[in-house]
Amino acid sequence: MKIYGSIILIVFLSLSGRDMHAQSHHTLNVGVLLPFYTDTSSTIAQKQVSQAALDYYAGLLLAAEDLNKWNISVNIRVWDQQKMEESDLIKLPKSDEFQSLDVFIGPIAQKPVDLISTNLQHTDFLWVSPLTNLRLPKTVQNVNFFGHDSIRVKGLVHQLKLDFPNHTFYLISDNKKSNILKYYKKELKNAKIGFTEHQINGSRISPKITTKNESILLLNVSTPSFSRLAQFSTISRKADSYIVGDMDWYDDLVPAEEIDETKIIYPSMNHIDGQDSAALEFTRRFIQKERAEPSKFAFQAYDQLFFVGAHYASTGRINIESLPKAGYKGLINTYLFKKTTTNTFTNQGIRIIKSEKIELAPLENNDDAK
Q1: How many CB atoms lie within 10 A of CB 221?
Q2: Distances 362 to 91, 95, 356 between C-alpha atoms, Å
Q3: Which residue, 208, 188, 213, is CA-closest to 198?
Q4: Residue 348, exposed/middle/buried by CB under 10 A (0-12, 13-18, 19+)?
Q5: CB-CB contact of 55 with 282 (8 Å)
Q6: How many CA atoms lie less than 13 Å away from 202 in the CB half-sphere?
Q7: What b/e string do you get for 186-198 counting C-beta neighbours within 10 Å, with b at 16 or more?
Q8: What is the pLDDT of residues 271-305, one digit of tens each?
Q9: Distance (Å, rounded) from C-alpha 195 to C-alpha 178?
Q10: CA 321 and chain centroid, separation
């Protein structure tokens, strides 16, 4: 994956005046409201949130550097939510700096959103919820980069249907009453994908799956990652069959020698390809500037601002209705936006992580080798 190639695709798929916009110089005014400040009285949780915010900000700065190569000057105005009272949040929309924004990023909780929304005057900007799913005001264009569970499930089912159009689906769960199971069943039906339901009980699947079909998917919902041990025998000898893990499996993975990992598919919101040249270059630059390894929040910030900025470069403005309909693969996240309500788009992009089998060539006989 080359992120620059993805951006070129966005630029060339945009409006008819794309060449003019890509060559013209633009200024993008970005506001960021996140909880940065901590002191000796801060809790461990508060310090962790603060570090995530600082990493996110550092990722924004690297994205701004790269957007400058596209003739986009990014001015970033930062507000520290930790130092703002409720009255400050209510007054914020009236400030000249806020009213000059093209993009507003943050906050990460619903109450500050509601306080800011009460006095919203300037509405010609894009409001971004960067790290969590929030109810943003419909009076402005807004994007949730991380959607509700139902949106994530929709994205996964959409991707599986594209990748495995001829496979038979088996829905594997350990709780018939979980809300997320309802989402899976709904989206599978909406996608016109037939399936049967099964439960995982200890080391057994009930009812037992008996089929001669060589192309099946065991789609897991709210099951623990170690349950793949009990499922593996069902697909191990089928040439084109796989276990699709729950969305939490990849982050809580314990290797198991008994399993051929090429037969397991891990859905994930966040995934960095350790062999990707762009991700490696981002890591090198981040370490050079921050003297520390980048967290996932730094990668997320880069992807989000670079995506929005590239869209701005290609159109000369930010219009949520003209966001690219095709999926976009960034350093850590994949973006596929769905309009959920008026002026609101939510990302339903999912990463499908699958190990590839590595064939080792036999060593040639060499009498001189020692």
Answers
A1: 22
A2: 70, 69, 19
A3: 208
A4: buried
A5: no
A6: 0
A7: ebbeeeebeeeeb
A8: 998 889 999 999 999 999 999 999 999 999 999 99
A9: 18
A10: 20
Instruction: Give every CB contact of residue 44 below 8 A, 6+ residues apart in sequence.
Output: none
Sign, CA torsion 268/274/275/280: positive
3-state secondary structure of 142: strand
CB 140 within 8 A of CB 128: no
Structure tokens belonging to residue 358: 């590595």
H helices of the chain, in order, are 3-12, 18-23, 44-68, 86-91, 96-99, 110-117, 149-163, 179-190, 228-235, 277-290, 296-315
Rounded to whole angstroms, the Cα distance separating 320 from 323 reads 5
Rounded to the nearest integer, the mean pLDDT of the chain is 86
Residues in Cβ contact with 241 at an 8 Å cutoff, skipping those fewer than 6 apart = 167, 214, 215, 216, 217, 218, 234, 235, 263
Nearest CA among 81, 115, 78 for reference residue 97: 78
CA 369 → CA 16, 249, 359, 361, distances in Å?
A: 62, 44, 22, 17
Give the sign of the dihedral formed by CA 261, CA 267, CA 272, CA 277. positive
Among candidate residues 99, 75, 79, 103, the one with its CA nearest the CA of residue 89: 79
Beta strands 195-201 and 204-206 are antiparallel
What are the DSSP calls for 189-238, one per residue?
A: HHTT--EEEEEEETTEEES------S-EEEEEES--GGGHHHHHHHHTT-
The single residue listed with the structure tokens 């010609």 is: 124
pTM for this predicted structure: 0.84
